[in-house]
Each structure stands twice: as structure tokens, then as C-alpha cells.
Amino acid sequence: MSLPNQVIDRPVIEDLPYVEAVLNYLIPMAEKPVNYTFDPPPGIPRQSGSFQGYKLPIRDGRSIAPNLSLDREGFALVSHQSKVRDFYDENEIYNVYYPEAEKLLLEVTGAAKVVVFDHNVRNIYKAQKGENGAKEPVKRVHNDFTASSGYSRARAVLMALSEADPEALLKNRFSVVNVWRPIAQPVQESPLAVCDAQSIAPTDLVAGDLVYRDRVGETYAVTYNQAHRWFYFPHQRSHEALLIKCFDSAQDGKARFAAHTAFDDPTSPPDAPPRQSIELRTLVFYSAEKL
Questions:
Q1: Less Cβ crowding at N or C end of the chain, within 10 Å?
Q2: Residues 6 or more apart in contact with residue 276 via CB below 8 angstroms
Q3: pLDDT single digits (tens) 137-180
Q4: Side-chain half-sphere exposure of 155, counting CA atoms within 13 A
Q5: How far apart are CA 172 and CA 289, in angstroms?
Q6: How far is residue 80 CA from its own chain's centroid?
Q7: What sign does the dihedral 32-37-42-45 (CA atoms) show?
């Protein structure tokens, strides 16, 4: 079985089963988009920019999962059993799940060092009640880091960890990989779609400010391109981890940015339970690979 970071023959996708669903893309704009993670001052919108929905085929990637590569498509599905009993327990997340994820990524990428630095749990019911720090699924096409913020966030994380020489690590190839998985029933409501990084043109990516109370990050919104190739993994289960490349410092043809979004699945039952999921953000260092 191939590793998720091993590039083998590109799978043929035209005959894969698919659903047609609406994905929301940024409408091109002159200003830099801004998104606040908290309620901004009066008169300032929580999010700038407008989005337009496009009804697109989202292909079932299960049959080609063994052929998918983090370095080509920018995403991969792997089997991984976690020992976490309660994904809403912060202590378990930090003490059990973070080390599990670091070990998993070391194994599947062949990296020299992995650092988990952030996580989100998503559950629309808990989010609406303000419970457990949960957030709602994001239903707009985006990528969590940009060509600039991949470096700035990595540098900030390494400095916070008191890494002896952050700049030495950043001179070698590194990537930001999300580890996304369900934490309850198989996903039916608001599944996650991922876009083949090789189908995304650089001009499709629009850098925007992500404003926190103590800092300003930068993410990519995405404008529509009919060449985009979208995939999902129906009824994804808790022992299946979806790895998503959000940044790569390499500029040699490897996947750098795999956009993603939650979407309304037209085949989802009206009484489907709300999606419950967790995503980790990680730094993956390939110390032997110079830029």
C-alpha cells in the first residue's frame, strides 16, 4: 500500500460517482478581504467580501484513496485509531491526541519533525450554545494559510516553543498539514470537500486578513475556476483521518495549497445528526530537503 506522501500514477477520476452540490466562492474584489474571529467594533462587518454559489460535481474519492498523495493532490485519507475517549476534553486532546497525530504524520510523510500547534472542534449545536469552544462548519471555499502566513505562523510557533534556531528549520522544506476527522457518528451532514491542489491556479487564491484579538493571520479565499476538481469521502468515520496540505515551502511542483470547504450534501437525510469533527494544524519538517 502506498504512503499518502508517495506520488504514484495519477488516478482516473472521470468515471467516479459524484454528488452535485453548491460550493461558495469569493467574488473577485479590489480590497483585501477581512474576517474577524470575534465581534468587531460597531459599524465594521464581521466578514468583508461576497460569495457566490456554484453547483459542482464532488467526486467520491474512496475508490482512489490508495492512489492519493499529499505531494500531488494535496490530500490523503488514512486509517488511524485514536485512544481519545472524549474529543471535547482539552486535556485529552493535548496529552493524547496531539502525540498520536505527531506520530501518525512522522510515519506517513517520512518527516524528521512534526509539531501540532492548534486545533478546532466543530459541532453546530454546541457552537450555537457556546459550549466546549466548538465552532460551526465553514461553508466557503478557503485554505488556512498563505505563501506568507505559512512562514510567519511557523516562526511564531517555533519561537513560542523556545526552539533553539527557528530560522535553521525554516531554511529547509516544511509544510502545514491539517488532520481532520469525525469524532462521533459517520459524517452525513456538512461533509468536507477538498480540491485537488494541481487544479488550482495561483490567481484563484486571494489573501485575506484573519483578525484575532491578539494578532492578525492570513488565509486564502478562493475565486471560482471551472478547472477545479473536488472530492469527498462519504460517511467518513472516526477511524479515518483526512490529511490536507495547507502550505508547503517547496516550489518544485509539489502540492502547496489544497482548498477545502464544508458543503450541504443533497443525499444527506433531513434528520441527519450534526457533523462533529476535529481538525489539528501541524508543522511538518523535512530537514534533509533544502529549499
A1: N
A2: 87, 121, 122, 123, 182, 183, 184, 185
A3: 999 999 999 999 999 999 999 999 988 889 988 999 999 999 99
A4: 11
A5: 6
A6: 17
A7: positive
Average of pLDDT values for 88-112? Answer: 96
**Cα–Cα distance for residue pair 47/26, rounded to 1 Å:** 12
Q: Which residues contact 134 (CB under 8 A, 6 or more apart)?
A: 88, 121, 122, 123, 126, 127
DSSP collapsed to 3 states, the chain: CCCCCCCCCCCCCCCCCEEEEEEEEECCCCCCCEEECCCCCCCCCCECCCEEEEEEEEEECHHHHHHCCCCCCCEEEEECCCCCCCCCCHHHHHHHHHHHHHHHHHHHHCCCEEEEEEEEEECHHHHHHCCCCCECCCCCCEECCCCCHHHHHHHHHHHHCCCCCHHHHHCEEEEEEEEEEECCCCCCCCCEEEECHHHCCHHHEEEEEEECCCCEEEEEEECCCCCCCEEECCCCCCCEEEEEEEEECCCCCCCCCCCEEECCCCCCCCCCCCCCEEEEEEEEEEEEEEC
- Contacts of residue 234, defined as CB under 8 A and 6 or more positions apart, other chains included, come to 60, 62, 191, 267
- Confidence label for 13 from pLDDT (cuts 50, 70 and 90): confident
Neighbouring CB atoms inside 10 A of 156's CB total: 15
Number of C-beta neighbours around residue 49 at 10 A: 18
Question: Is the predicted pLDDT of residue 270 greater than 70, yes or no?
Answer: yes
Q: What is the rounded (10 degree) CA torsion for 99, 103, 104, 109?
A: 130
Question: Cα-flanking dihedrals φ and ψ of residue 151, to 5°?
Answer: -70, -45
pLDDT digit string, tens, across residues 173-224: 999 999 999 999 999 999 999 999 999 999 999 999 999 998 999 999 999 9
Do residues 175 and 291 make contact, with C-beta atoms less than 8 angstroms apart? no
